[in-house]
Queue: 3 jobs
Job 1
Amino acid sequence: MDPLSIFNLQNPWRREKSFHVHPFIERDASTWLSHWLENPDVLVILGPRQSGKTTLIKRQIQSLVEKGLNNSIFYFNLDNENLQALFKQVSSFVKFIQSKSTNNKRAYIFIDEIQRVKNAGLFLKQIQDLDMPFKLIISGSSSLEVKAKTKEHLTGRKKEFLLTPLSFAEFLKQSLRKKVESIPSLQNKNELLDFTHLYGEAIWKAACEYLLYGGYPKVVMTPDPQDKIAELAEIYSSYLKKDVQDYLGVENVEAFNKLVSLSAFQLGNLVNFSELASSLQITRATVKKYLTVLQDSFVLTMLPPFFTNRKRELVKNQKVFWLDNGLRNFIINNFTSITTRGDHGALIENFVFNELTRKIHPPSTFHFWRTQTGAEVDFVIRQGEEIIPIEVKSQEMTLPRTSRSFLSFLNQYHPEQGFFLNRNLLDQTKYKQTTIHFIPFWLINKFSF
């Protein structure tokens, strides 16, 4: 099929008066996209495959169609290789846009999977340099490729957003709908106590589903558990086929797959490059390369240790966390109920990790803490001179009691506040000069850092 025919199929609003995206889950990213839509910078939406990037774009297109801007909207999904012919030369691309514009108003140009364009950064820069009434909104499934191709040419001329699978707050909007209108802030303790008493069990049940199947939109919107697993299988298969084999250039796919499995079983644990290299019979450098691929294609993340005194806190190995619990559970083929499985604590810790990464941005940094003697705190946030420890416990609590490791951290660093996340307890206590907040882990999205 020729590029023009593909373009016409991908842009149905050009021949129809209305355009609707069905079904879709309202994402927090919609606010970001709408806010920057009239800004001259290139908008870059990064995220894993099937995290909702295309739906987010189509939702924005729907809003523009509702304003009557049908012929000012251009959408290109470059997963269709035949369409890539339009992107070989800037001059021909600009002529194509102009030929399809019926007025002199701004053209909104949405490009899905921009990494398919050769020299994408230079291509986009040359368009920007023309200073034409073009607004470029691009998406990509590979942070490594997109950033490598755009960093040099678009520095200071782009706005980036990472669209992950649904946050728990977004998941609750879909799973509980009208049952939970809004969760009170942490400051309104009495209201929050009433809320947890009223909705605590319903939210715990929702959390169990979220911990098991994750937050990929299509998985969330699929009601049957076996169908959810089938959707996760398709997500991983698509990732292997389109990114790992065809695009990211992984040479030893068998070793790569084994590394994925080992990383899934090591959720929340330290990563030892030498041990992995020995187990997989590949070099240490190859292990590091493949882990970088997994990070830059949004499968997992490595968390560095927190230390100020290298003699006492000598752990330099990083911990591994997964972007989505559901995909991780698919890799290890375990969808046993959260209440009976042995790794439920690791899944809740991974849940907290992902919620925190959505809230913590530079210059703040994010770590774990572990000493030579074995004392450990799950997460430590550093904000300038302020240090905030966070411990995660999966069990129910009746009294505000901390662990020895947590107290060890408090004695050494004397933070103003710390958090002890658990399944149910909402309380507060004081240890020396530190205020310790005991909070249900599912309220993590209400934290302010």
Note: The longest strand covers residues 376-383.
Job 2
Amino acid sequence: MIRNSRYNMKIALLQISPCKTAEENREKGIRYCRKARESGADIALFPEMWSNGYNIYGRPVREWKREAVSVDSDFVTGFGCLAKELNMAIGITLLEKYGDAPRNSLVLFDRFGERKFVYAKVHTCDFGVERNLTPGEDFYVTVLNTERGEVKVGAMICYDREFPESARILMLKGAELILVPNACPMEINRLSQLRARAYENMTAIATCNYPETVPDCNGGSSVFDGVAYLPALEGSRDTCILQADGQEGIYIAELDVEQLRNYRKNEVHGNAYRHPKKYGILVDTKIDKPFIRNDYRE
């Protein structure tokens, strides 16, 4: 599914089903990265925790913890070498070996094979089995050099989407594009969250999910470009430039980075008219707040 337009940076969402082992996932991931590059992709993104296919539910914790791999393992560094070979950035995801409690992570390589950052999911799903993971500590933004030019890229993972602060911090750090690996049903409300995060931050957001053949997933990978208004149009436009169906495949969107940058110079969202001095309650831990659950960690 390729949407024709004048956009100039191609983002490939690898909406593919996992195999039984990390080695099989590595081989399949390599094949699909090659296919994405053949289609002209500048960036290829995997769904959440590709190294083991997010296969952590309904299994003994000690069993899946053994499947964690290091960011310096052959599984990960191999995609760095592939990125250099293909001249294409790759966002590879993994259950990352990290002390006694693994992390849910994304490693971003640029087209030269350089590791730009390792992002670990900050908002782990602590109401479920992810309570056994180590949450990340920060959000990162890097300047990613692509064949078509530079773009400032950040990342968040699945449940991070539920918190406006995730995308807001990435925007404040300069992100123009946010990569979002995912592993859950992408229904109207979650899609609406992504649409809102893109709109309110004037930031492009690319989300890669597993296809409908994977339990509790349904495809629906998407790209929102964050540009709601154009001078030539009356009223607003649909910021969704790609919406995948449930089938396995490579879904490519073309993002006009210059259009986004020009839009950010003139529109009123993002950081244009914020009043951060009035938002103290957001980070004040001394104030009792509703809905806080303190019993989720073992």
Note: The CA atoms of residues 99 and 134 lie 9 Å apart.
Job 3
Amino acid sequence: MTIYALSSGAGVSGVAVIRISGIGTKEIIQSLIKDELPSPRLATLKKINKINTSELIDEGLLLWFPGPESYTGEDMAELHVHGSIAVIRSILDELSKVENCRIAEPGEFTKIAFQSGKINLLKAESISDLISAETEIQRQQALKIMSGRSSEKFNALREMLLKILSNVEAKIDFPEEDLPEDVIKNIKIDSEKIRREIEQILDDKKVGERIREGFKIAIIGPANAGKSSLLNLLSKRDVAIVSEIAGTTRDVIEAHLNLNGYPVVISDTAGIRESKDEIEKKGIKLALKRAEDADLNIIVIEPKSIDFTGFLNDLINEKAIIVINKVDLGYKNINHQIEKFNPIFLSIKNETNLDELINRIKDKLKNKFVSSNETLITRERHRLSLEACVHNLKNFEEKNSKEDFDKAAEDLRLATRHLGMIVGKVDVEEILGSIFSDFCIGK
């Protein structure tokens, strides 16, 4: 099967890139250019025609990559043509007429590259992250993963586990033979060392995931305190509906921002109050859950709504910034108990003290994107695999100490498998669909 897709962005552009990969690539390209293929990896100007006629579609650059020296490992070609909708549509229509040639699924080119052994799963995921990067720190992290340091680390740990496993299996297969004392001793020492290394990688405060997904900020507070207005002000656009009517926001509304170079996801939530409306009650429940999961909560209140007997008392902690809004209306009678929490007195209407709030957020961000670990965990699936590996290693150590070698070996096999799943060293078909579906079509 041969696949094709527009690899550049949709819409009108100066140049569009159409990628073709598979067993029929050579014949398809020859039928389009009515000529022999150019030298490999050499951009060559060619006339591109309709397949069954000599009608000219466009004139552009052709790049020919014979397999296995290509991105996918298969025969592959790229057409760099003028980026008009008409030109793109005409070429894609011609390709669709070719037998055993179909449009690529999201991420299919990269999936084939993985299956061909050109890249491992970590690199495949980092390619997706690089395409999706919106901030400088996200770009740097994606490139760091692409460089292969994390892959090398996980592969090295896996090789060490395999070496331990071979010694354990030798003890099982040859019970009458006396293995050297240092081998038996090293099984215990090495497995504990690997477990501690993985535990150190896991103790990362989720910095890699925070960089990839964004620092989560929830704006919470009572109804009609100005939460939606604050979201719009920070986003510099109308993200949420603002109304004098309390309870306007029912669901969680998100905005992705680049704040001082850091990726931030700010959520506006339903106003917290007693309500008999079932939909609003569900929105309030979502708001409290979002506050629980957030890295930082901005609690927006107004002077008349300061109540330490309700939600406010439960949410004030080290990950909260308290904002007292509507100070343009006066706040002489404010509850002075709030002052010990160092609130920011804000007027969203007049944008008073907005800079103070942004600086306070930046201070909270400073140390949240710094990790001493060279090996970064960027996805939940990596973390789950490493946690499972640690669990199996602990089971191995316990059974090994009791000389229950058969069961201990199985725990070691499972630990090795979980490490392998991160880079794709084992059968991981069940997770490939979810990984590559996040890619754009054409990659």
Note: The longest strand covers residues 13-22.
